[in-house]
Amino acid sequence: MTVPDTMEGAYILSVIDFLLSFVIIWGMSLVLYIFPYLNKLGHLDDSKLRGGH
Amino acid sequence: MFQQILSLMVNIAEQTGLAQIWWGNIFMIFVGAILVYLALYRKYEPFLLLGIGFSCIVANVPGSDLTQPGGLFYYAYQGVELVIIPPLIFLGVGAMTDFGPMIANPSLMILGAAAHLGIFIALIGAKALGFTLAEAGAIGIIGGADGPMAIFVTMKLAPHLLPQIAVAAYSYMALMPLIQPPIMKLLTSPAERQIVMVQSRKVSRLEKICFPFVMAIIVNLLLPPVAPLITMLMLGNMLREVLLVDRLASTAANDLMNVITITLTVAVGSTMEADKFLNIKTLQIIVLGLIAFIGGTASGVICAKIMNWFSGGKINPLIGSAGIASVPIAARVSHVVGLQENPYNFLIMHAMGPNLAGVFGTAISGGIMLALIGVK
Lengths: 53, 376
What we know:
Chain A is an all-alpha fold. Helices cover 62% and strands 0% of the residues of chain A.
């Protein structure tokens, strides 16, 4: 089912899209909150990476 | 014999552009000249406006075959029409961009969604003016302030409106230093504009390498309609962050990006032919695009103000407008407006977080829009 091509459809699309955007961005930010814990897995040395190990 | 020569001369004259020129061409040549002026003398995004302005002028000189099949401008436009150029731009942007500020401060990501209210104001406005819902969606996405995404979504929803939408998106992006500051100043107090934000944490190499993989998986899972663009963005960023393949990252960020920029600006400018461009719909789209940019800037600043209240005065509301995307122009505008109030307040890195989140915000809005309208 798709949104009807009417004025009401424009309102529905806008409300759903705007709210869902917040939810998905918020979800992405939650994932990024976990990122600092990746550092417990180890450390990558920039100079070693540049040198190809 | 004299008559023969005269007839040949008339024949030659008829084949020149002079015989076909009309006031619309002259008007559009003037528009192209304004774009070149803004780039040359006002330094507004010369990388974009010079190419657009030049090709707009040439496209409106009748007689040239550059924009017809066989002409180079025509083939440049095919790169846009076949949606080849937008993903390649995203590859280059990914290879140029440090997502560290966004990873370091995820709480500011929400501004990347908040600053897109303008998309929906323009969408509803376009529908009220009689555009179809698909056309209105394509017009609304101008407010995402992301040129490649605007082209991508427009090609899916309303390809016939591409010239107007691409020109509006790129022109307003270039004119952001003029459009945004008055709104930002109107919605903030001098005290708010002087807020100095705490320096963000340092993001490790491991985090930066994991980021493109994680984001590519999330976007492909949740937003398949816009996955081609974000996947290329993340590919470019992965090439940059692994440090091992700096030749590839450098090519994507510099040489390839330069070639694509020339091709894109020529393609966009060459669509500004008077007979296609000068109509009431163009005027409506230009106005709606401006409303979208103003609405997005305002909603971003207001959301940042709310976040500032909740954080106890730790967030400078000026960074809210950067959530509109248009990396890094909008972040630079936040920084410059902040500097005008306090010359020791460097907001650029803080504004880059919402600014980069804005790229994802536009992609999310575009992806949901394509899904809801039923376009794959």
